[in-house]
Each structure stands twice: as structure tokens, then as C-alpha cells.
Amino acid sequence: MPTWDWAALAGEDLPEIVAIEEAAHSYPWSEAIFEDCLRAGYRLDGAFSRGQLIGYSVVMSVLDERHLLNLCVDPAVQRRGVGRFLLERLFESARAGGARCVILEVRAGNDAAIALYESAGFTEIGHRKAYYPAPGGREDARVMRCLL
Ligand SMILES: CC(C)(COP(=O)(O)OP(=O)(O)OC[C@H]1O[C@@H](n2cnc3c(N)ncnc32)[C@H](O)[C@@H]1OP(=O)(O)O)[C@@H](O)C(=O)NCCC(=O)NCCS
């Protein structure tokens, strides 16, 4: 299993973050959304390979809950364990900070992400109808939680 570096992200990482976001998501966040996240004090953490950003997570803390708002891996290196690596680091830091659970929303049709989350211990705790924009209509969200 390859190892990667894990580090907090900041404003200077935004161009690399946005490039991955636009390559990986069908409805990418804008740079302004990431700026708002940094300004709001959300945790942005990155996985690095030889100094190059290859994936990231965005986490909001609410008391003893951690809300995973975004998890994204560069399409060029997907399916090599980077998503799982980011989740594991997130779990470790959440536990160290006294968190009780991690909560997220995911598109009901995002089979790759759902497979990753289920394998990491997330289970469905809710369902939001027509939550996301989608081609030709709206897509449901699954709300998932992992107890730490
Ligand atoms: C979802 C995402 C973060 C997964 O990252 P990744 O680095 O490719 O995932 P990993 O290699 O760590 O995969 C871990 C496990 O997740 C599951 N998985 C990941 N990608 C999968 C795919 N395309 N199809 C089926 N299962 C998949 C598998 O169980 C995999 O374990 P395995 O390879 O041993 O079978 C990545 O596909 C991504 O960035 N997608 C676009 C953005 C996105 O949808 N983010 C989630 C928003 S909620």
C-alpha cells in the first residue's frame, strides 16, 4: 500500500484544489465556496504525493459531530486508496478532538462514494428527496453517519 502525506490546506492551495474539484465533480464547488469554508474555519486537509495535491476533504465541526462536506480525489489517481486514506486520517483527527460521529450527504447514484463510505462503516440515517441538481432533474441525497 503506498503512503501519502497528509496536511492542512490553506489559501495558497486553492488553485490545485479547484483544478481537482473541476476534474472530479459533475457539479463542482467554485473557488469562492472553498474560500468561504476556509474563512468559516472548516478543516481542509489534503493528501499529497511527492508534494503534489492528489485529494482533499472539507469538514465542519458541530459540537461532537464532524460533517464531511466534500471528499475528492484527483481522477488520475482514483481507486488507489487515496479516498480511504483521507477518511482514515479524518477519523483519527476527529477521535483525537473528541468527536462522536462523522455525518455526510452523498448523491444516491454515487456508487463509488457510497461503496467507500459503507466499507468505512457509514450507514444510512436519512434520505433527502430531490436534494441535488442533476442532468434533466434532481437527485436524492443519502444521509450517512459513522459512529467513531
Ligand atoms: C469517491 C472518491 C472520493 C473515492 O476515492 P478513491 O481514492 O478513488 O477511493 P479508494 O481507492 O480509496 O477506494 C476505497 C474503496 O471505495 C470503493 N470504491 C472506490 N471507487 C469505486 C468505484 N469507482 N466503484 C466501486 N467502488 C469504489 C471500493 O470499495 C474501494 O475499495 P477497493 O478498491 O479495495 O475495492 C472518488 O471517486 C472521487 O473523488 N469521486 C468524485 C468526487 C465525489 O463523488 N466525492 C464524494 C462526494 S460525497
From TrEMBL:
The gene is rimI. The keyword Acyltransferase applies. This is [Ribosomal protein bS18]-alanine N-acetyltransferase. Transmembrane segments: none annotated. PROSITE patterns: GNAT (PS51186). It is found in: Cytoplasm. GO terms for molecular function: protein-N-terminal-alanine acetyltransferase activity. HAMAP family: RimI. GO terms for cellular component: ribosome. Acetylates the N-terminal alanine of ribosomal protein bS18. Keywords: Acyltransferase, Cytoplasm, Ribonucleoprotein, Ribosomal protein, Transferase. InterPro entries: AcTrfase_RimI/Ard1, Acyl_CoA_acyltransferase, GNAT_dom, RimI, YpeA/RimI_acetyltransf. Acetyl-CoA binds at residues 79-84, 110. Pfam families: Acetyltransf_1. The active site is at 105 (proton acceptor), 117 (proton donor).
